[in-house]
Amino acid sequence: MTDATDKKTADLDDRVEEAVENAMAAADAAADDAGDRIDDLADAASDAIGKATAAASEAASKATAAASEAASKATAAAADAASQAKALAADAVDDAGEFIDDASDWIQEKYRENPALVLGVAAAVGAVLLVGVGAIVRAITRD
Questions:
Q1: Closest CA to 137 of 127, 124, 129, 122
Q2: Rounded to the nearest 5 degrees, what angle is found at the Cα of 140, between the Cα atoms of 139 and 141?
Q3: Domain presence at residue 92
Q4: Tell me: the pLDDT tens digits for 76-95?
Q5: Could you give the number of structural domains in the chain?
Q6: What stretches pass through the bilayer (predicted)?
Q7: Are residues 52 and 111 in the same domain?
Q8: What is the pTM of this model?
Q9: Are residues 60 and 92 in the same domain?
């Protein structure tokens, strides 16, 4: 009975050894498969990160270009507005000079015709200016 038992034990040992080898081979195959899948996932993630980085870089470049263009347009508009304001101010000064010259000529002409009237009007205008300045000073100093 010992030989039969030994044979069964040897058979069982062979089967266990074969099952362990099969399990180890299956585990190695699964590990290789998992490693391949991890490598594929890592490659896909790397590609996605590269594409996202490129898209972000492109968006930043476009935003910088748009900001630069807007700044250039704003600078040009400000320069144009300043130029127009300068031209308008020069025209206003010229017009005021012409008005003063015309008014001076008119006052001289009226003074030659009727000096008392011109002096009376000048005194009245002076009095009105004094009253106006006095009213402003009084309004400022009032509590």
A1: 129
A2: 95
A3: yes
A4: 888 888 889 888 888 888 88
A5: 2
A6: 116-140
A7: no
A8: 0.42
A9: no
Kindly state whether residues 54 and 107 are assigned to the same domain: no
- In terms of pLDDT, which residue wins out, 98 or 7? 98
3-state secondary structure of 143: coil
Residue 119: CA atoms inside 13 Å, Cβ hemisphere, count?
5
Q: Quickly state the pLDDT bin for 18 (edges 50, 70, 90).
A: confident
Q: Are 104 and 112 in contact (CB under 8 A)?
A: no
> Residue 123 has what DSSP assignment?
H
Same domain for 95 and 57, yes or no, is no
Calpha distance 13→10 (Å, rounded): 5
Please check whether residue 111 lies inside any domain of the structure: yes
Q: Which domain holds residue 54?
A: 1-64
More confident residue, 58 or 3: 58
Hey, how many other C-beta atoms are within 10 angstroms of the C-beta on 142? 6
* CB atoms inside a 10 Å sphere around CB 102: 10
**Are residues 107 and 118 in contact, defined by beta-carbon separation less than 8 angstroms?**
yes
What tokens were used for 103?
């008014």
Same domain membership, residue 58 and residue 9: yes
Question: Are 55 and 14 in the same domain?
Answer: yes
